[in-house]
């Protein structure tokens, strides 16, 4: 099946983003396709290159990056949510004249239209957050 | 930083896409100058649309995307004007993007 | 992107307008889905019904008026707003105190709307 | 046209009560994250025709013993979660 996963919580603030990761990994292992991972609202914090964990904690962001890369998943962070929360790629950093960019290269900034498109194109949409 | 030079030497900061950085800087004169850069010469036909847009934003806090923009113009100025072809002639490119820029509103989201 | 077959997308919003960002986030999703010309149901449950209360003046806390956007929804062809009647009543609100006309419905109707949906978002 | 409902909050939140108002015959409810704490309450008032599940990993993490759950609640692991999503027409997450 073609699945889309929506994540709207930040890593570590709640378990939801971790659940989304475990669900996505299991779905891929079972042979399903992830049409899109969409990070919305506080979920965009999952795409920050600058997030840093202690050595003895699960590195959720590193896990996302590995998963996205090894399965070539289309992973999108909502651009308006991301800008508000200080998650920028090089292009947006230049546009708004900010001193740095921090979006991990496995993610793309794009609009909510990509979530609507995914809703139309996928067999199922599963949301994690709160 | 991009900016708009007014004839009276005032400098209005713009974002990279040419939208006002600070909405309170808008004035009819600013609109004229923004239009001249496109280039468009603002006529009464343009102004009535810009006024409808500004009133809509004032009431609802939203810059309308393309389809709602066309419907809004149809509702307030009549169905002969609430048509994409008419609005495209007045505001070349994407009319909702161009008109919101000239009206001093934020960039509409989800505008194709 | 494809818009050849319209899907029914239902949004259920359950949080207050200003204490959290979810209400605004849900509205943004609704406006985006509307641009794609999908069939949209917008349902207010639990504390989400507070979003519809008349007389909001969030400029006092430097926030944009969320309720003002609801009155623009017909232009986006989002015409079907539903509130859970019980949730409204529990909070001492009635339909006359809301910024827009809504369908005040029982949970059964909401259950039906969910069943008719292709996708449901809750925020 | 059945629905999978996921709940990730304890029963003191409105997530559970709101979900119970709209879950119907043929639907399933899956308790995940803090939702698994509600597993004992749900044993007492199962909804007619609504299947109940709890995520195994989240039960174990919280020291909840899956073997003591009443027969009305089945436990599933993440693979089972994926299967449930596929078996239902849509998924609603209550949080």
Number of helices of chain B: 5
**SS summary, helix count of chain C:** 4
Radius of gyration of chain B, in Å, reads: 13 Å
- Elements of chain C, N to C (H/E): EHEHEHEHE
The CATH topology of chain C turns out to be Hypothetical Protein Ychn, Chain: A
Q: Name the overall outline of chain C.
A: globular
Percent of residues in β-strands of chain B: 5-15%
**Sequence stretches where pLDDT stays below 50 over 5 or more residues of chain C:** none
The CATH topology assignment of the largest domain in chain B is Arc Repressor Mutant, subunit A
- Report the strand count of chain B: 2
Helix content of chain C: 25-40%
CATH architecture classification name of chain C = 3-Layer(aba) Sandwich
Total count of domains of chain C:
1
Strand order of the largest sheet of chain C: 4-3-2-1-5
Question: What oligomeric state do these chains adopt?
Answer: heterotetramer
What class do helices, strands and sheet pairing of chain C give? Answer: alpha/beta
Question: Which percent range fits the helix content of chain B?
Answer: 40-55%
What is the rounded distance between the termini of chain C?
Answer: 24 Å
The CATH superfamily name of chain C is: DsrEFH-like
Strand order of the largest sheet of chain B: 1-2
- Poorly predicted runs of chain B: none
